[in-house]
What we know:
By secondary structure, this protein is of the alpha/beta class. The protein has a domain at 2-59 and 372-430: Urease, subunit C, domain 1 (Roll). The protein contains 14 helices and 17 strands. The chain has helices spanning 85-99, 103-119, 138-155, 170-184, 212-225, 236-246, 250-256, 274-283, 291-297, 304-309, 329-343, 349-363, 396-402, 430-440; strands at 2-13, 16-25, 28-32, 49-52, 56-60, 62-67, 122-129, 158-165, 198-204, 228-233, 264-268, 286-289, 314-316, 380-384, 411-414, 417-421, 424-425. Strands 1, 2, 3, 4, 5, 14, 15, 16 and 17 form a nine-stranded mixed beta sheet that branches. An eight-stranded parallel beta sheet has the order 6-7-8-9-10-11-12-13. A hairpin with a 2-residue loop joins strand 1 (2-13) and strand 2. The longest helix is centred in the first third of the chain and has 18 residues, at 138-155. Residues 35-42 have low confidence and may be disordered.
Amino acid sequence: MLTVRNAECIVVDASTLVQGDLTIVEGMVAATVESAAGPTGRPPPEPTQTLDATGCVVTPGLVNAHHHLLQSAFRTLPGTRGVRMAEWLPTMAAAYARAGVDSELCAAAAAVGIAEGLLCGVTTVADHQLTWPAGMSPDASAELAAAVAGSAARLGSRLVFVRGTARDDPQQAALSAEAVVAALVPGTERGVSADGMLQVAVGPAGVHSDPRETFELLGEVAARYGLRRRTQANEQVDVAIAAEKYGRRPIDLLEEWGWLAPDVTIAHLCGVTDDEIARLAAAGATATHAPGCDLPMGWGIAPVAALREAGIQVGLGTSGGGSNDAGHLLADARLAMQVAPLVGPPLAAVDVLGMASAGSAAGLGRPELGRLRPGSAGDLCVWDVSGVADAGVADPVAGLLWASPGRRPKHVVVGGRVVVQDYRLVAEPEEDVVAALRRRLPRSL
Length: 445
């Protein structure tokens, strides 16, 4: 049992803010100050561990709905900044080929990305793994997925492993996805482990790289195992390729191929029309905004306010280190808030914070994540707002985003387990995580 005491503010969700204490029992939120009794109606027992949150804001753990963890090993590469996606993709592919993608590299890169996320308040990360060695067998691909999952388990983060594709053979991709399910979450009904720490999903990179057969076969795997489906649409390259190859727009193809549905989340959506937004909403699909990738690369800005106004659940993701060199989701939430008026009405800080937590969780089909109500998962961040960067801030919750760019949480808890304490990883030294990647991939590469 863990109790967080004396918080200046607890963000239960985007509509509920309270003060005081929060108790976690057996990995779940048992009580906040507005609910003094646990879910059984009895007061919770005395805490076995206490975190002092005096002068702090407590929020739900952040949910990074769209990452490419492998790219954490390939940041700031020459020729990958401020270029069109048609140039960026082959440059990144060449870097992967030089490095040689294998389980060791994927595990080391994932550990770096996951550790960075935890230190920045991300308690759940969705890893859209798109890069697979040619000819890799289903069993070998399951071993690669297990290596990534092992890094998350070691550090204490929740992981959603998305068996993605990018020009893979459709039949082999489907067989690989089934092998990943069997290796990571066997016997589950919705691709989520019993403890909720690991989830499997499927997702082609987009209509620019994968044919209809890939979408259909992975859709069949998803239906068979109850998996969520995820893809990317309406950035530069897929709009151009869809027009050239099919004479259509990406949303048209996704709808025709059966990939506009409540179990589908679409990342980016930079260039969508009013009609496409209406169709996405009618289908019940969810969206992921990735401004830290799309904006600096010049790939567009998703009209988040319009998506939300249409009733679409919008989450937030960083995308990968190849286009967004940081995995700092709160910084990207700040960016999302700042750029929103360029493409529509402004967004309130508490709403964007909700996108980075409950909004992202909705796209994963995980209503227990991203909020701190009794019965929710015990994932939270404790943010110290007592320093000079927050002096004069009238609203400490809005100040989390508006003030102190790059702020990090003092403590992070996942499932009731403290994984970051006093700004440091608990599971292993940060230096060891860095050293493992540098041994596999020297900086000189």
